[in-house]
Recover the amino acids of this structure.
DNA sequence: CCTGAAGACTTCAACTCTAAAGTTCGAAGC
DNA sequence: GCTTCGAACTTTAGAGTTGAAGTCTTCAGG
């Protein structure tokens, strides 16, 4: 019996269009144009994250580790941040950060040492190996991103960047970091 | 000493612009326009997820539960899917899905029963309460989304939706669901 | 029938995160 | 100088996830 005559045998997974149609069917007040933007945005972002995950995996790097590397690189030379600051930027609890640093220090991606000037603080510093890993991952990512936007001409890219930045500003203004560690990096 | 003369005392967290500038400084091959799009997209998406999380929390709903509700609603009446299918759509392992369904069944959001026509299968079905929860969450979400896009005129909204959809299609074509459970819903 | 293979879900152990203590250090007051 | 408070990090217990192994059902042969 290859035909799914029975109940929810093998409902095909919905495309973006089908999903939006379903939402409209179930919730009449929905503006389809708004939903198109929001749903496409979210789906796109997830697929991109999956792609990033695969790439970093080929370098023996987890997505979690990559985020720490990014935060340290963005902080600029000498690539040092404390666990608390890292936690805040990544949107994690300090406890989670402690463990993540443990692992990464074991792998040689970062070092952890007390700040001798203020011994309450700890300094997490990128190692040369960590920096090199970040660079490799970045090379892969930039190729992927360039390829992703390939079909957009300069004007479209610019406009897209501007509009997204406007939306971002709107969200950030609306949620003035309300509950503490919300911010993160990308 | 309020002045951060010492090491990495209190590096301010980077704005989007600062972040992109840092990437360029550390990785010359980067196209700033591409990075603007990608970084804004990712940051925006995270902030939105935080906002959704807060909203659903006010309804006593976790983000995880909300995603299950969405998948069931999108599947349409009679709002039934199997654990395996749900896991595939949400990008989870079947094991995780089993536990999630346990919790949600305990809370009365879904029911779980064997498919009598094919007793290997299990049918997860949305309860009336679950459907009502979804509706409440949807009402909150749609207000938020409408507000988010408020500053965009009709043309901009349309264009944004179209461009994002094009990008999505590109990613989906490039990664033909390569490793199994990649797809998810939004 | 009875057996073997495949499919769908569940169970188990290990891992990662959160929330809530706990620890250590530094700074201010007595 | 001793005490107390606050800040920064770590530890602990519990929730939720993954990957691998296990169970139950169906279906195709022998």
């Amino acid at each position: 019996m290859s035909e799914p005559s029975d109940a929810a045998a093998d409902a095909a997974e919905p495309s973006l269009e089908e999903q939006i149609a379903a939402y409209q069917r179930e919730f009449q007040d929905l503006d389809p144009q708004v939903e198109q933007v929001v749903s496409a945005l979210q789906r796109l972002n997830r697929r991109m994250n999956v792609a990033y995950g695969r790439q970093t995996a080929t370098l023996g790097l987890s997505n979690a580790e990559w985020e720490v590397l990014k935060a340290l690189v963005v902080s600029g030379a000498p690539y040092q941040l404390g666990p608390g600051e890292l936690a805040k930027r990544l949107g994690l609890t300090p406890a989670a950060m402690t463990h993540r640093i443990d692992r990464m220090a074991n792998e040689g991606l970062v070092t952890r040492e007390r700040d001798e000037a203020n011994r309450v603080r700890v300094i997490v510093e990128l190692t040369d190996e960590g920096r090199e890993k970040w660079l490799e991952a970045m090379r892969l990512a930039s190729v992927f991103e360039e390829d992703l936007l390939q079909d957009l001409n300069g004007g479209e890219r610019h406009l897209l960047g501007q509009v997204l930045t406007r939306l971002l500003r709107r969200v950030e203004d609306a949620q003035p970091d309300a509950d503490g560690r919300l911010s993160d990096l990308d």
